Amino acid sequence: xxxxxxxxxxxxxxxxxxxxxxxxxxxxxxxxxxxxxxxxxxxxxxxxxxxxxxxxxxxxxxxxxxxxxxxxxxxxxxxxxxxxxxxxxxxxxxxxxxxxxxxxxxxxxxxxxxxxxxxxxxxxxxxxxxxxxxxxxxxxxxxxxxxxxxxxxxxxxxxxxxxxxxxxxxxxxxxxxxxxxxxxxxxxx
Amino acid sequence: xxxxxxxxxxxxxxxxxxxxxxxxxxxxxxxxxxxxxxxxxxxxxxxxxxxxxxxxxxxxxxxxxxxxxxxxxxxxxxxxxxxxxxxxxxxxxxxxxxxxxxxxxxxxxxxxxxxxxxxxxxxxxxxxxxxxxxxxxxxxxxxxxxxxxxxxxxxxxxxxxxxxxxxxxxxxxxxxxxxxxxxxxxxxxxxxxxxxxxxxxxxxxxxxxxxxxxxxxxxxxxxxxxxxxxx
Lengths: 189, 231
Fold this sequence. Notes:
Chain A is mainly α.
């Protein structure tokens, strides 16, 4: 995100704090897709993720007056999304099932093998990325897709910066193991 | 135990290794990015790992982009919820900078350009008025340097500026003689530079002819080798 857009997001939040609906529409238009995708990756359900983004932006509407601009608005949005997603998962009471599902995928399911047979490393990588644990998935997404710095990820996830770095390292190691189990060797580790 | 610890240490990633994903995403600060670049240039194993990271980076973006976008239902639901919220009063505690930022953000570029031009014009007019007032009230008359063979180049310092002169005393002049001379002329030393003394005579301004006479008298003194009237 450019510095100009970040500054402009701050102005939008200031206007939203004054009850400006148009500013809310602009902010929503700018960020809703990324918020939705982050939500989908966390809760693994498009309908739940759609409900989630309404909740996230409603929270922004309510809390805009308290936003102090210490972090980027996009970072704030992702932090709210994460909190709401975890609450939604707790409400569904099937978070354990979700973990089981993740583990099942980690056990080198057929899909990556099929992908490898087709010599499609790209497809295998995507399957294995989906098979990571929720903790590893969110950190990979935040760094690679949402382009968040170490400090920003630490703020969103609520962990120390050094933990952010090591967690991503072990997420990548796990990914390499999944790929190896699926027959894909990439020369690391 | 020692062997186990050593093995664990061997698998401990280096700081540079930990930063590679952020380097791929372009979110490192310039100093860290430079360190990573240097390490990649000298370490082939690290470069192989970085190549794998670039694949992961590209596929993570591809995977997320394939997730699509929410339907219009989400936005409708949001604004229905906002409509149901209690009406909001503008916050009195909103800080000044936020209000100023909001005000300027609300203006169109054309309006801002006009406002800027108007501001510049007002400043120019203000400068003109201040300049005119200063010139009108100026008590001292200034005379610019010009070629004149009859009169020394002088600048009136005001109605009560006493005469001044640059004086060089004879090498054999004693301090007591100089002091006596200063007393007799009611002069005081205001400055000295390179053997020259700037003297001020009395506390009142003098007509030009009196100054000329004073200079010639001074020049005639035994211990004075040079005396020139000066502003």
